[in-house]
Every structure is written in structure tokens, then in C-alpha cells.
Amino acid sequence: MSSSPEALRGASAALTGHLHHVLGDLASARTRGAVLKVMVAGSLAALDAAASVVLLPDEQTGGLAVAASSGSPDNLPGGSDADGLLAHTAFRCGQAQYVEGPASRPGRSAEQAAGPGAQAAVPMLLDGQALGVLVLDYHAPHTFTEPERLFLGTLAGQGAVALGRAVGLEQLDRLQGRTRQIEMAARAQDAFMAFSDAIGTETDLLALARQAIEVLRARFPDASIGYYEPENGRWKARVWSQDVTPQVAALIASGLTPETPMIARVLHTRQPEFREGWNAEQEQLATTGEYGAVANYPVVVEGVVWSMLSVGLRHSQRWTGADRALVRAVGRGLNLAIERAEAVQRLSQQNAELAAQTRALQVFADLTRDLALSTEPLLLVRRAQEVAMSMLPDGFALYYEPQGDLWRCRMQLGDLQSPELQATVDAGLPYAETQNLLTPWTTGQPYFQDVYHHDTDQLSMVVGHIGATATLPVRVGGRPAGVLALGLFHQRAWSKVDRVLLETVVRSLELALDRSAQARDLEEERAALEAFTRFTEAVGGETDVQMLVRQAITLLADTCDVDAAYFERDGDLFKARAWSEVDDETLVSLLQGGFPLVNSSIALLLKQNTAAFIDHWNDTGLLIRETGIYLAVAGYPYFVEGELQSVLMVGSRTSLSWDERARGIFRAVGRSLDLALLRARQTRMLQEQRDTLDIQTRELSAANEELEAFTYSTSHDLRTPVRHVMSFARLAQKDLATHQNDRVGRHLTIIEQAGERMTSMIDGMLVLSQAGRANLKPRRVPLQKLVTQAQNDVGLEYPDRPIHWQISRLPTVWGDATMLQQVMTNLISNGVKYSSTREISRISVWADEQPGEWVIHVQDNGVGFQPQYAQRLFGVFQRLHPERDFQGVGVGLAIVRRIILKHGGRVFAQGTVDVGATFSFSLPMPS
């Protein structure tokens, strides 16, 4: 039977279409299962059978076994039973077998043949050899047409071709896999041999760790491997395989704590650990959930866990014996290499230490000689920097001293290799944020960083090229004086020899600075004694400030050959009040015009409240361009109550730096002038006190005159009730004689009323007197609170009086709270009293801010008064309304006036008859 496409030309178009579709699927099928699935599904769909089955030889039974099926056959043919006879016959003879009805089924009894069903068994032939059988089964009789037989024959033949191709591909895949395994084993062996060779020669520990990782990766291509070392209390990965995810890389690079379970176990046992069934949550390493098994091998040197090798398998939950042996072998090799490298490093370090000690002996001899020849502090620092850097490769040295809120670099040796960093150093470093300097300064101990942490000094943007640092405190006279900072452009493990050498350099520098300071102190004391003697003789009895300043300027010009000027604060500027003869008119004009001392180098020094000296003035940045004629500048500050008020400045045109003699004389003159200025200020204060006493005497005299006038007014006003008492007492006596008792009663009532009025007037005089004698106790007083209290007081005085209040926002003033409470209560009570004739009393209180003072107003809607009599209201016993209409003796407003005058304010009033009145007072604002 032909299986070529030409033989199917007579088949139906539908069946031909099915065949083309199935053959296309067979051509693209790459595996045995895919081929068989296409055959059973395609034949079942094309011929509308009940089931389609592919049978393949079974090596164990020697028969045929079902390899793929589709549909629902009654019995799957196969094995050696009767249902499989047709398939076995087709497979054995290589010819298609067809049964179109039950009677035609071979090997069946008559009873069995009576049932319905049809079947086709077509061998799958490739190069004349049957690879299997395609079986098509029907539940009812079926006649296989020629196109159907051609379809099945073609499908079986092309299926055999596709099945042969799939089997070949599977064999090729197995062969390639085996080849890869052989190549991988060869690479692993080569890597292990290279690692074994490196163990005996390599001293770079990280290089050895990388080779160990390569060996393990060759054996475990799906594994992640890392090498850890302890640093600052954490176990940090130094190198790791490239397959590690960014999340895990960030975790292991930042380091694991010793309490992490996998770290803690290894540190405790110091033995290799093979963890199967890795639980990331239990291990407190959530980002490592992709691993199934993990091994940790500790590298132990002299009983201490030196480092650790960690291997994580992604696609395996267990460690085989061979895998464990390989990890142990690599770990032992790494352990041996590290032990040997450590021994080599120790030997190398000992040799380096011996060489460094030999070199240091010569260096220290030179340093001692050089330091003995100079007394200038910065030159001593420079020489110490040169000695220190001669023992270190490729770096720089800086010497810092704290000035205010900044660290100032006083001496630099070497190029910082960064313009940005140089500009930052020149501008000064923040005192509190620069930990590299603050740590040795506060602890008194050297601070070494093998690997400079760029955030130590908050300078990460400009210090990326610095690898290691060392900062050592410098003490003079037992007190911190500065910090010597050394920076290297590469990382360096500071050895004991390094530390001893640098500490010895600093100690030698401290001894030289102590000796220099002692010599300088002696010289200054001698010069100061001489200058003080001369200046004391000149200013011993002088109190005129300008005269004192001119004599100090003259003394400095004569003894030190300098120009001098004395400046006093005028607002934000310092203006020259006296100066040496200067031939530069522009400079004189500028000095007289004044300049600020804010943010200048000299201002920062003057804040120390001691003499400030700046050498090489024209190299440090000029305060005023015209002062470029000076080579060195010095200043002496004068403070009054903690604030800089004046400065004595000197400038040298002949010397770049100040010698000890000039410094001593300037300090002595500055201190002497300070004492003289203090004495002058005290003299002025004494004079001011005398002037104040004269003023108080005049004020007392004026007060006596006012008292006399007040006594006259008071005695005149008190006569009225006294006359009433005397007159009506005589009338009462007469009426008693004539027994006119009714008239006597009326006279006695008038006498009683006059006595009560006189008592009220006397009480008012006492209150007024107390207000005048009381001492002020000024403080900040919130007026809003006083008005609230006055409202409460008035409510108790007039409980049944309806009052409408309009209180505006009031300020906080400066005064005596008790006295001002009396003022507010009197004014508000007065307003309610004189508005009692209205249906509702309306009281308004507000304040106006005026230049230098607050003005407070209290307004009512009462009976008012005629404006021309406004000033009479504040006199004692002065009334504009009859007492029968409004009770009172007329001292309330007089008390208000007396209190406000004591506060330095004024009182005034405005009124309109039958409209209302406004009483106002002012309070000065504190300056």
C-alpha cells in the first residue's frame, strides 16, 4: 500500500485536509509523546472512531503496550489477550489488518463474534521495520473505504518517521547532556587543580576566596557562594558569585549579626554545617528563600573563626556524600592557605617593623634636632608633618585647631588632589560634625581608620579618593591644642609600628611646643612687664578714653614699629576713633567710615576674647583691600557685658609674622588699656550716678512743692465738711435748749453725713499717698487678663446693672501688675457708674500702638462732660457732677494719674455731654 501524497489524490477533500493538518503537526513535534498525541488525536478526529490507540513494544513483557490513546474504547488492545491479536498480527507481518464487523474478528467464538464493532490495526513502518501499531476502534460495524485506508497508512508511515526523529533527538539530548557533564567535571577538576596550586603560593586572601568560589561553582552551577569576614561586629561578604540577586547582595554586603542563626551555630561549634531543607524565615534571612540546602564552612585559625565560606543550592534540598566531601576539601584548602598567608603576613610585618624602627631612629634623631632649633609653633608642626609623611606613602598631612564653630587648618603638607576638598578645608570644617577630628580631641586618644568611612565627616561628595586616615590629638601644657590629621589615597591596615611611630612624632611635637610655649611665655612676660611699666606711668591718672587710646597707640608705634588704630562699635559697624599717622587718605576715609567685623578671619579670632594675631595677612584674604600694605595684623578685643564694643588693631609693614617680643608688648598694652578703659567706665558710671542723684534731688524738690499745693487744696476741700459739722452742731445745741427735737435730729443727720464724707476724703488721700510711695515691680503684664479681672470686680459692685462689653485684643505691656490692675478697675468702674442713667451701659476697651508706646482707651456711653474741663477730672477731689447724682469723693482718677506717671506715661480724656466719655493712658514700650 502506497503512503505517498500522490496516492491520496482520489480521497475526499475533507479527509485530505485532515491529513495535511495532522502531517503539519507531526513535522513540528519534537518529542515522542508529542508525536503519539498528534497521531491518536488526528486519526480519531478524521475518521470519527470511538477510540484511537498507539501500541509500542514493551521490553519487559515482550509484547505491545499502550503508549498513547484517545477516545473511549471498550477494551484497550495490547498484551497477548484476544483483543490484541489484530495488532500483534499487523506488527508481526508488517501489513495493515482490518475487521469491519464482529463476524470477521479473528480468534473469537461464535458467541463473541455476535457483538457489534470494527477495528483497524496499521503498522508504523520505518525502513521496513515496525516501530509500533496504530489501532482505530469502533463500537459498531464500519466499512473502511479506500480513502480511509490510504489516510491511516499515510498517518502510520509519517508517524513512524516522526517517532524515529523524536527518538533520535532524545538520544542526542542525552548525549549532549553527558558531554556537558564530562566538560563540567573537567572544568571542576581544572579549577580544583588551580585552587590546589594557589594554596601553596597565593597570599592574597580574597584572591584565594575567589578561586574557591570558582571551584564550587564548577561543581554546583546553580549555587550561590559567598566568602565572609568579620568587621565592626558584623559578618560581611567580601566576595560572592555573580548569580546572587541584588537583594541578597545588599544583605550580605552590609553584614550579618553574630546572632544570625547560621552565623551563631558556626561560631559556637567551629565545625562545617550542612543544612538541608533550608527555612529562610527560621534562619532570619527572608531574602534567601530561593535556596533549598545551605553549607557553611568556618575557616579557623589558632582556634578563632577567621572567616566563613557559604554555599547555597537552588534546585536541591539535600547534600550528597560527594557534595559534602567537595565542600570540605575546598574549605580545608582555603583554611590551610589562609593559615600560611597569615604566617607570611606576620613574618613580613615583623620585617617591616624592624625596618621601620631602624628608619624611625634616624628620623627621630633628625626631628629632635630640628625641633630644638625653632620656637615658632607652626614651623614645629610643619617639621612634624614632614617626618610623619616621610614614613607613609602618597598622602597629605593637615593640622587643625578649633575656632568657634569650625575646625581651621593652620598648616597643610601635600596636595589634597581635589579642588573641591581643598576649598572645603580652606573654608573650615563644622566642629560638631567632623568626627575624625572631634573624636581624638574629646577622647585624647588617636583615631585610626584602615578604610576611611566617607560619611565620618559628612564629606562623602569630596573624599571618595581617600582610602585611610589617622588623626592624633596634640596637647600643649596638658591641654588640647590641635589635631594632626593624616590622609592616604589608598587603604592601609595601620600596624602597631605605624601607630607607635606616629604617636612618637606627636609626642616629640608636644614636647617642642611645650618648650616653645615656655620660652614664649618668658619673653612675653619680660616684654609685658616693660610695656606695662611704661604705659602705667603714662595712663595712671587718666580717665579720658580718647587720651588713653592715643597714648596706647603712641606706645605701640614707638616700641613695635607698627601702625595702630582704635575702633568703637557704631551699630553694625566698627569705626576708627583714633589712629597712627597714615599717609593713605583713602585708607583713613575707610577707617572713619567703618566696616563690619562679621565673618572675617580677624573677627573669628577676636571672639576668643584675647589677643588675635594673623601672620601673612596678604595671603589670608584682606578685610579691606587698602590694608594690603600690611604684612601681619593683630587685634585686641574689648567686651562690655559680654558684647564686643571696641577693638585695638595694629598692622606691621615690615614683618610677615609677629615675634615673641611684639606679641608680648601688644598683649601687655592691650590688657593695660583694658584695665584703664574699665576704670574710665567706672568713673563715668560714678559721674552718671551723681548726675542721677542730682536729678532725683530736683524731682524731690518739685514733689515737695506739689505736696504743698496738694496740702493746700486738700485742707481747703476738707474745710467744707468740717464747717458743716460745726455749724449744725451749734444749731443742734440751740434747738436742744428749746426742746425742738425734730430739728435736732435733722441737724445730727447732716453732721453724720459730713463726717462720713470727710472720712471718705481722708481714705482717698491715704490711697493716693500709698500710690505715690509704692515702689514699682515691673514685669510683662498681659492687659487682657487685667481687663477680665476688672470686669469681675465691676460685676460684684453693680450686680444688677446690664452691661454690654466690647473688648478688643489687648497687648502685653511692661509695668507693675498690681498698680495697673487698679488703673483698669478704676476706669472701667468709673465708666459703669457714669453710664448708670442709661438703659444699658456700653463699655469699650481697646489699644493703639504708637511710636515707642501703647495707648489704652476706656469708653462709656454715660453723661459725658464739657471738653474744656477735661484736665480737672484728674485732680484730687475734683468733680464735674453733683455728689447727689453720682457718689464719690473724686480721688479715683487722681490715683490713675499718679500710677501712670510713675510708669512714665500720660493720661488724658475726651467727652461730650450726654454722649459719653473716653479716658486714655499711655505706657512706654521697653527699649
TrEMBL record:
Enzyme Commission no: 2.7.13.3
Coiled coil region boundaries: none
GO molecular function: phosphorelay response regulator activity; phosphorelay sensor kinase activity; protein kinase activator activity
UniProt-listed GO biological process terms: osmosensory signaling via phosphorelay pathway
InterPro entries reported in the protein's UniProt record: BphY/WalK/GraS-like, GAF, GAF-like_dom_sf, HATPase_C_sf, HATPase_dom, His_kinase_dom, HisK_dim/P_dom, HisK_dim/P_sf
UniProt KW keywords: Kinase, Phosphoprotein, Transferase
PROSITE patterns from the UniProt entry: HIS_KIN
Keyword Phosphoprotein: yes
UniProt superkingdom: Bacteria
Gene3D superfamilies linked to this entry: 1.10.287.130, 3.30.450.40, Histidine kinase-like ATPase, C-terminal domain
Catalytic activity: ATP + protein L-histidine = ADP + protein N-phospho-L-histidine
The keyword Lipoprotein appears for this protein: no
Pfam families: GAF_2 (PF13185), HATPase_c (PF02518), HisKA (PF00512)
Histidine kinase domain location: 713-927
Name this protein carries in UniProt: histidine kinase
Species for this entry: Deinococcus sonorensis KR-87
